[in-house]
Design a protein that fits this description.
This protein has nine helices and 16 strands. By secondary structure, it is α/β, with parallel strands linked by helices. The chain has a single domain, classed as TIM Barrel (Alpha-Beta Barrel), CATH 3.20.20. One of its GO terms (biological process) is Mo-molybdopterin cofactor biosynthetic process.
Length: about 350
């Protein structure tokens, strides 16, 4: 496990209240936060090689036998929804569209009661021919990564010439009713940081919701450098030179994005200051990796092996009990300079 130190300010943590977590039917951590949002990685594989995420080559993918089967995924999601109070399920990767059984997984999760909201985080490649099928299966909405509108820059950032496919996927998602279609953009200094206004203009024209996300230390090669990260305040300053931004009066709650109305609305833009202003204090997420490991925090170095419980024949109640127990290692109010981020290495 490689440790990456962040240059974030140190903020005092609040004391943890006494909570008998295993006695609660829900996922409540030692800081009193309840997890209602489950992120499920369907694969560690990806068909892009984004420079801020992974090297151009030389990656070792997990063996197929280590990856959860479709049936195992649906069973674990069912436990989370029926017994642990999960209300939102987001399928991620790697690239989740590389999962051949994705439509079937979505359809089975959509049949759960109470029915969770189901979303997908994708790079958009391969979305165009599958958007309608996914919507018919029960997918509610999509988040699509789009860091640039220029083909040459897209090739530089992702090492693949596939911008046209992503734009086609966005249009198909909108046509299929996967609303709202959200765009996730990472700005890199000296690469695409001048495109913030044009990306917002594009999103406004097409009816998409755009969110700018500060670059986080998630790269597999551990080359994250804060000097290349464009801070949220810089992005807002750049946008304000072209648009009138008004703070959204709606309570942010556990959402990571600070939302601004654009030119009076109804269009809006979100800015996620994941490094300069972490939102750990309001986190409501829990994560399941492609090989069945439970993570209570994206940057936690602690995992709980749910796959082995499934394959040993444990029943749903046993799995639910264990799932509740490790809901403690999540980070408290924020991350400090003396706390390290541990790259999840493709999780």
């Amino acid at each position: 496990m490689t440790v990456i130190s962040l240059g974030t300010p140190h903020i005092r943590m609040r004391p943890a209240p006494e909570i008998d977590r295993p006695q609660s039917p829900f996922l409540i951590d030692k800081f009193g936060r309840r997890a209602v949002d489950l992120r499920v990685s369907l694969t560690d594989r990806c068909n892009l090689r984004c420079s801020y995420c992974m090297p151009a080559d030389g990656l070792d993918w997990m063996p197929d036998s280590d990856r959860l089967t479709d049936t195992e995924i649906v069973r674990l999601v069912g436990i989370a929804v029926r017994q642990l109070g999960i209300r939102d399920v987001r399928f991620t990767g790697g690239e989740p569209l590389l999962r051949r059984g994705l439509e079937s997984i979505v359809a089975l999760v959509a049949k759960l009661r109470p029915r969770p909201r189901i979303s997908l985080s994708t790079n958009g490649i391969g979305l165009a021919p599958r958007a309608r099928r996914l919507a018919a299966a029960g997918l509610d909405r999509v988040n699509v990564s789009l860091d640039t509108l220029r083909p040459d820059r897209y090739l530089r950032i992702t090492r693949r010439d596939r911008l046209f496919d992503v734009l086609a996927g966005l249009a198909a998602a909108k046509a299929a009713g996967l609303y709202p279609v959200k765009l996730n953009t990472v700005l890199l200094r000296g690469v695409n940081d001048d495109e913030a206004p044009s990306l917002l203009a594009f999103a406004m024209a097409e009816g998409y919701e755009l969110r700018f996300i500060e670059q986080m230390p998630l790269d597999a090669q551990h080359n994250w450098d804060r000097t290349t990260m464009v801070e949220a305040r810089e992005t807002l300053r750049n946008l304000r030179a072209h648009f009138r931004l008004t703070a959204n009066s709606k309570a942010r709650g556990s959402a990571p994005a600070e939302v601004w109305l654009v030119d009076g609305g109804p269009g809006k833009v979100g800015v996620i200051a994941s490094v300069t202003h972490p939102f750990c204090g309001d986190c409501n997420r829990t994560r399941l990796t492609a090989d069945g490991q439970l993570r209570s925090c994206l940057f936690s170095d602690t995992e709980t092996d749910l796959r082995s419980l499934l394959r040993r024949g444990c029943d749903d109640d046993e799995i639910a009990r264990l799932w509740r127990t490790p809901c403690g290692p999540r980070l408290p109010d924020t991350v400090s300079t003396r706390q390290a981020f541990c790259s999840p290495a493709g999780r």
